[in-house]
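Dear colleagues,

As part of the handover before I leave the project, I'm documenting each prediction I ran so the next person doesn't have to rerun anything. This entry is a single chain, and its sequence is reproduced below.
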Amino acid sequence: MDLETLKIDLKGLEEGLTSFEFNLDNAYFKEVNAPEVSEGNVHVSLDIVRTGNDFFTLTFREKGTVVVPCDLCLDAMEQEIETEQRLDAKFGIEYSDGDDECVTVAENEGILDVTWLIYEFIVLAIPIKHVHAPGKCNSAMIRALEEHSAARSGEGEEAAMDPRWEALLKLKE
């Protein structure tokens, strides 16, 4: 994918609504070269509403799948994502994205590169916990996890019980 298509010429937009469609594939994620997501297939709809000479409202709609590591077995898994994000943009002296809700675009250039914004919205749409469906995890890794969990839980049995717990157990009897 040519990332140049993700550079929007805000100066060239007419007042009112302008829409863009992007299909992001593995080439996009490879070009971005970020650690969280390296593969995927995501459709992006971008609506830009220009109001006045220097103010823009951008609405990003992203839907598709990305490949992330499973939290349990660490094998790659497909994770569905769907998100809608809104961002404002305005012209200023130089580029600035210090505000989470408004981006300032250098007026002398007038170009907003949405490549990284789209990637950040995709990453934010990934659930905190992502695991394979039951029975789909790497069985060898799950066995290794169970063995290590059992070994760790067995170590503490030999240690003496905390006296506070002993006192509570006496109350129970």
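Residues 139-155 form the longest helix (17 residues). The chain has one domain: 3-132.

All the best with the project,
I.
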